[in-house]
Amino acid sequence: MNLPLIPAPATTTTHDGTFVVTDGLGVVVQSPELAGLAERFVADVQVDAGIALFPGSAGITVLIDSDGIDGLAPAAGLRADGNASADERYGLEITSEGVRVWGPTAEAVHRGLTSLRQLISTAAADGTAVLPAARVIDGPRFAWRGLSLDVVRAFHGPDEVRRVIDMLALYKLNVLHLHLTDDQGWRVEVPSRPLLTEVGAAGAIGDRPGGYYTRAELSELVQYAADRYVTVVPEIDMPGHTSAVFKAYPELGPDEIRSVDLGNGDSLQLNTLDPGRDETWAFVEDVLDAVIPQFPQSAYVHIGGDETWGMSDEDHVAFVEKAAALVRARGKKVVGWQEIARADLDSADVVQYWLDLDVDSMVQNPDLPTPPEDLLPILVEGLRKAKYDAPKALEQGTKLIVSPVTWLYFDRPHADASSDPDQEEARKRLGLEFYGAASIEHGVSWDPVDGLPGIDSADQIAGVEAAIWCESITSPEDLELMLLPRLPGAAEKAWSHQTATDWPEYSARLAQQSPAWRNRTWTWLRSTEVDWR
Ligand code: TNX
């Protein structure tokens, strides 16, 4: 029998018998370092399932122990926090006598308790959850499992970001990549450059409100995530996607600001930082010095590097190499969108592979909209080079974070209709039309190792990261509707060792997730293809 867990665990054995979880059941902590995470587990079960557990002397026992987990291979890839001794493998055993959750580290125990949380919320009815007797030995396939969140095109305040962190944690995702800067806004304070937030943070796309995180708010978010074993990795997107910088400090920009109207309230910016000017580097150093200390858990800084429309290849490479050196000089490793592979990299750097598209067939596809005429050559020329990026990265010995547009861009429109008529208006409005719509089933019908051009073995992969870009998103409800129910599918690909997902089996597990989502007041697409509870 498959337990209703997402991601699917590595090994499960089920037995006869059950254990009943109900109000007043005790949680027993056998090492003091686990007290905090056990408290969080109790709080989460209360919200997800409406069941009140208590510290006690019998019931659910949590402990540090490595019994039985060494039969499972450690995760492949790289950790965003750079912690080489981390281990997330855990055991979970349910018998008619009680429940035991263990692992060699507190983080492993936390992952095990997360599975138990799901088992309780999926079984809960009227304050009681009857769990089947079972033994689970589980651990992740990949070490880096994340979501890239665009907080520029629409600004998501701290409360909404906390809700997203809660979603990541429930599905054992461990990286929140915050896309903090872009053409339409600058969302992080740099005290030595106050106009970045005073001027650059105003507005988003169209007439949407802007905003930024204060230093205190960011520290709180980073801690909230760390408490849930999620590392926040900051992205400062350079040298393209920097029009907000030029609005704040025009002297850093080109003499003439150039852009192409996309006809949908948004425009494509052709303005980039100039690697040949000293002011550029004084600026980059100021930004890195302000931003890096805000993210103490992250071993990486994401420098963007994507879509430098209108910039020469030579300047792009010169920029990436110097920016990367400044990051490394501050003790951090570099991650960037795949275009950075065109520069000389260090083998410890990481390249984020996103462009798995075949641009020529997209241009010829009559079902997809055609971009404005003056943009077409720029786009096609830029995108054609992309097919060499992953091979170049691998040749340099760097690993890839896989974020393929085809499978992991959550700003693709939803192909599944919603059973809720009120959601149909939002569904049809959301997502970028030129990607084509994708179903929830489509989102799990691939494999990170076997399914991508240029990749042939798991040791080329640092991890798996979904991305949500917010050009079409205007509210927290929109954001959640595009994240759910896709996010658990990304977690399935990042954590589970199953290389092929059987849709009927997966959708049965997915359907069981909805009581916890309802209790957490999360918005999700009521896909008619899933038999929600
Ligand atoms: C490409 S993905 C971008 C973003 C857009 C996104 C829309 C990447 C590195 N750059 O600037 O928001 O497409 O899906």
TrEMBL record:
GO cellular component: a single term: membrane
Top EC group: hydrolase
Top-level taxon: Bacteria
InterPro entries: Beta_hexosaminidase_sua/sub, GH, Glyco_hydro_20_cat, Hex-like_dom2, HEX_bac_N
Molecular function as annotated in GO: beta-N-acetylhexosaminidase activity
Gene3D superfamilies to which the protein is assigned, alphabetical: Chitobiase/beta-hexosaminidase domain 2-like (3.30.379.10), Glycosidases (3.20.20.80)
Domain Glycoside hydrolase family 20 catalytic residue range list: 142-358, 388-497
Keywords for the protein's UniProt record, in alphabetical order: Glycosidase, Hydrolase
EC number: 3.2.1.52
UniProt-listed Pfam families: Glyco_hydro_20 (PF00728), Glyco_hydro_20b (PF02838)
Family of this protein: Belongs to the glycosyl hydrolase 20 family.
Active site (record annotation): E307
One GO BP: glycosaminoglycan metabolic process
Name of protein: beta-N-acetylhexosaminidase
Species of origin: Kribbella pratensis
Domain (Beta-hexosaminidase bacterial type N-terminal) ranges: 4-138
Reactions mediated catalytically: Hydrolysis of terminal non-reducing N-acetyl-D-hexosamine residues in N-acetyl-beta-D-hexosaminides
